[in-house]
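Hey,

Quick one before I head out. I ran the complex with flavin mononucleotide overnight. Inputs first:
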Amino acid sequence: MIRLFLAPIAGITKSPFRKLIGRDNVIDYAYTEMISGVALYHLDPKALSLIDIAPDESSVGVQLVGGDPVKMAEGAKIAERWGASSIDINMGCPARKILKSDGGAKLLLDLDRALKVFSKVREAVTIPVSVKLRKGWRGRETFLELSKVLEREGVSWITLHARYVEDGSEGPVDWGSIRRLKEEISVPVIGNGGVNKAEDALAMVEFTKCDGVMLASGVLRNPFLPRQIRELESKGYYTKESSLDRINWLLDFCHEVKSLYGDDKGAKYVKAIIPWILRDMSSSSWLRGYILRLGSLSSMMEVLVSVKSKMGRGE
Ligand SMILES: Cc1cc2nc3c(=O)[nH]c(=O)nc-3n(C[C@H](O)[C@H](O)[C@H](O)COP(=O)(O)O)c2cc1C
């Protein structure tokens, strides 16, 4: 069975999303969204609230982002106390604000700092420390050099997002880089980038020989992707999701979110996900637009229930 990882996704991979995507144990390991190590160091309540590991969640890594070794280490200690199974260090985020703080993808250009951040965090905690990085910047491909140093310093596993920083999350993916990394280091390598359908996960493992596959936007666009991968692995085929499945999934998600965050805060969170889940559903742009204008979760759920009953009647 392929080891499946649910990626850290800002604004999305909070506990209700992790819980629903991981239903029936289809996911082996999940992450929180990235959290600023500096904000944790300052005990910022919003940052602390992002370490939202539920008592019934067992394998959740907390992803930290930042370029200050000492503050990242303090942040890691807090995350460990708050239930993290591991700490992941973000070395790939291209957001301007993160680059300005010397964190994320900036660390791919400053290997000394990257190593200091990693070593300080590793010394600070007893749980495994992993790193998620990219190939590098165009003209400065540093993933191999950096990974070898991290391996020597005791990294537990490395996730390689097989794109250049400049390519964001949708540019061309180069699974050849994952294959090269797997050939060159002996710690587990998790492949990431461009797994959008079940066949892609199997093809990535076959081509790269990676030790696990990390799912990100593929799961946002199709929350049934992990289940479909499991089906394909075990039976050789899988059932495609229907529009009704998507609406039912959204309703389940709304219920989870409402019980945890309430109507108003919950609405904001669900609105971050709706455009993704409805994106590949035929004639859904009106529904997307309509729901995004609503103010409360209850009103969104009413609309989804009425869409569902129309679908049931074949309208
Ligand atoms: C909306 C969004 C938010 C993301 N947030 C994070 C994040 O918090 N930390 C991180 O390491 N990567 C983040 N990523 C990158 C993904 O984890 C993943 O590396 C990237 O989307 C490539 O995988 P994919 O091609 O399967 O989508 C984010 C991507 C998207 C689309």
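The chain has a mean pLDDT of 96.

Talk tomorrow,
K.
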